[in-house]
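Much of what follows relies on a compact textual record of a protein's fold. Each token is a code from a learned vocabulary of local backbone shapes. The record below shows the convention in full.
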Amino acid sequence: MSPIPVSVQRKEPGDAEALYQEIRQAIDHGQPRLLELTCEKVEGKKASLLIGEVLAVQLYEKAAAAGGSKRPGFSLDS
């Protein structure tokens, strides 16, 4: 049971926000039990998550992570 990050991309900020809210709501209510995510950038890329095992969800703009800087949020990297 090792934690792994999962990332998906959305072309529009509104779509990213909607997915963020969907995941948060699923975590809050425990429904659906299994959530399948797809990536708009890489066709065919899918990930299924067991909602009870999701610890956090983060929304950020890809441009914010460019230029060698770390993306916003918390990191365990030193």
